[in-house]
Amino acid sequence: GENVEQHPSTLSVQEGDSAVIKCTYSDSASNYFPWYKQELGKGPQLIIDIRSNVGEKKDQRIAVTLNKTAKHFSLHITETQPEDSAVYFCAAMNYGGSQGNLIFGKGTKLSVKP
Amino acid sequence: DSGVTQTPKHLITATGQRVTLRCSPRSGDLSVYWYQQSLDQGLQFLIQYYNGEERAKGNILERFSAQQFPDLHSELNLSSLELGDSALYFCASSVLQGASGGELFFGEGSRLTVL
Questions:
Q1: Which residue of chain A comes nearest to B100, CA vs CA?
Q2: What count of CB pairs under 8 Å joins A to B?
C-alpha cells in the first residue's frame, strides 16, 4: 500500500520568510496529492492540491511542486504570516481507484514568529 | 465551518468500556471517512462508507466498527477500550466515492480519553 513520508516534523520561520515542506510517496500509481492545514482545535482543511499531470500549481502565497520520477512533492509558502502557523499534512492517493482513502503524512508543525 | 458535524466533542471513559462517535456529513455528500489522529501517528485512515456501503478499510482494529445509515450519518463504535485508543477521531465527507473527486471536508473531531 501507499506510504507517505513528510519532513520536517517541525519548522520555525520568521515572519516574511519562506517555508518549505517536503513529502515522498511510495506508490507510483498515486496521482492526486492534496495538502491540508490544521489549525489548533480544528479539523484539517484543504489548501491546495495537485494532480500528476501537472508539475506545479500556485495559489497566491502557496505553491506545490511535484516530481513524479522521484516520487516527491513539496509545499512552498512565501511571505509567511503568523496566521500561517498550523500543522500541515500532505497526502497521496490513486485517483480513479475504487477506494477513495487518502494516505496522510505525519504532519509538519509550522510556527511563524512575528 | 466545514458543514460536517461530530458529536460528542469530548469523551472521557474507562478501559474496557464502549463508546459511539457520531458524524453528520455535509448536505449532499455521500461518502464518509473516519480517521484517527494521535500524536505520533498523524492521521490514520480507518474506514470509508459510500451511500451506506463500506468502500475501503484501513488500519481499523477488530474492536472498532462503523456504519452509515440511510440518512447518511455515520457512527463509529469503539469497544473494549484500551489506553492506547485515546486519540482525536475525525470524520470527513466528500461528494463522490473517491476522495480525489473532490476535497475531503473534516469535522472538528471527537477527542476520546481512556483512563
A1: A95
A2: 83
A103 membership: H or E segment, kind and range: strand A103-104
Contact A104 B42 (CB under 8 A): yes
Shortest CA distance to B42 belongs to which of B26, B55, B58? B58
Give the contacts of B10 (CB within 8 A, at least 6 positions apart): B110, B111, B113
Query: Which H/E stretch holds residue B115?
Result: none
Count, residues in chain A: 114
- Quote the cell numbers at residue B91: 470524520
CB-based contact A93 B100, cutoff 8 Å: yes
pLDDT in tens, chain B (115 residues): 889 999 999 999 999 999 999 999 999 899 999 999 987 778 998 999 999 999 888 889 999 999 999 999 999 999 999 999 999 999 999 886 655 556 789 999 999 999 9
